[in-house]
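subagent[fold] <- orchestrator: predict structure for attached chain, return tokens only, no commentary.
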Amino acid sequence: MYEHLTKAAKDALSKQFGVVPDVVWEYTQGPDRGDVSTCIALQIAKNVKSSPRAVAEVVEEALKGLKGVERTEIAGSGYVNVWLTPDELLKGLIQTRTACTAKVKRKKEAPIIIDYCGPNIAKPLGIHHILSHVVGQAMINLYRHGGYNVIGWSYPGDWGTQFGKLFVAYEKWGSKKPVIKYSVDELLSLYVRFHQEAEENPSLEDDARKVFAKMEAGDKTLRTFWREVVEISRKDLEKLYARLQIHVDIETGESFYEEKMNPILEEGQKKGVVTRGEGGALIVEFSAEKNLPPMMLKKSDGSTLYATRDLAMVRYRLDEYDPKALYYVVDVAQSLHFQQLEAACELFGWKMPAFEHVYFGRMRFADASMSTRKGTVIRLEDALDEGVRRAAEIIRERGEGIQTDAPEVLAEMMGIGALVYGILSQNRKMDIIFDWNKMLSFEGNSAPYLQYTHARSRSVLRKANQKNIVNFPTVDRLSASERKLIGTLLQFALILDEACVTHMPHKLAHYLYALCQDYNAFYNAEPILQAAEPSRTLRLSLTACAADVLKTGAELLTLRVPDRM
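subagent[fold] -> orchestrator:
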């Protein structure tokens, strides 16, 4: 949109100072600062041996009278602020509309693989598991919307000693019914009891390790038990994923790599990367420069580990998909593991794509320490149900103030949306304190506020008997609230790109909140349906554009928005 501004500024700077710098335009935060601004004068003044003010004067002079420029000014010590004509601003909204539509998928491009989810089988998801699920799905949605070839990959923990523990518990304390008739909650109860009993009788841990070793060796009874437990968990997860708008493209659990681990170990030993450690265990040792502890790949008893399967998984993905990037959405506690994994892949000499641990902070709890082993963790399903219950209460309390023909559907949107937005609106790198009242708030910067604003904009369009408006009329001037709303709408495409490439969904959430504020300020300041032409058409067009952006942005964050509320 601003190529002509950039060209004029670069030509002037080249002529005056002999430099051709990158001129970046930023949207301003208030009508007294113009529509866009550049600080290029501050950035290059020292290099061209001039004052910022003198450089800014060169840029401003080049922009005066340029097509689409209403006026300019130099602010502060060297900012150049530019006010654009209404036509120029409205023309830019074409890009905003385009950004609401997903780009054509680049099918021939190597895929970006985003590894997320990774639920543990035989245990209900705890509230903390929502982090990897919604952060990962938002990343996938953003990449896919941008036209990238992206694969959302789930890597459930369906293998390991926990199955030995569960079998021991099932044999000792389970009912006589077949395991396939168990619910996930009943399986969790057995798992919790195992750990309670093991505190008094540590030999149970040895029993569990022996059972899992037999399972790895192919014992038919244990393998059947394992398959049935996995099936129970998968059905339970499918229902939860549908509520959370989680759509997995490929799922391969740890067990998938069972036959793929030995070739990796053999390759590592041939290359001298995998060596014998204490008790005959197989390990990878790193150089002093890496400052990493050894990574164990096989225990002295012959059991494999998570790291062994992760290496096999990387090799499988490289061979089958030749990806351009591998992104792992896993909490910050696993940082060491992913440093070791990347370093081990380098030692193996594998040709690696972009590799990143997209970490998020830990979820902490305001009331008590939560633990799956102690059975005190807040179940994710219970948290969702609580959010829906609170939303239903608000809908009942507001009575006719809430316009909906389907209160149960609306409560589901609001309650789950509040919880998900409470996660995604925060910087993923920071720890999150789980607090019922904060997470399930319906005021201010929240999903219900976003949902309400979308419903309000759709209501205006219904009253105008128009679902959408695609043409902006020619106008001589814009009000302050119109100009502010347009400026925010113009930022949508840039925000999508920034949220995508930085893997920071909260940037999109913050943008949507600002858009809600600006649209509601515009709605309260300007008559829309009763306005004279061409203002009526302009304001309906801005309303339609805002509605589309809110819907697109919300859905990228896995939220649903109602047309009535």
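orchestrator: received. Logging for downstream: The two ends are 36 Å apart (CA to CA). The longest helix spans residues 220-244.
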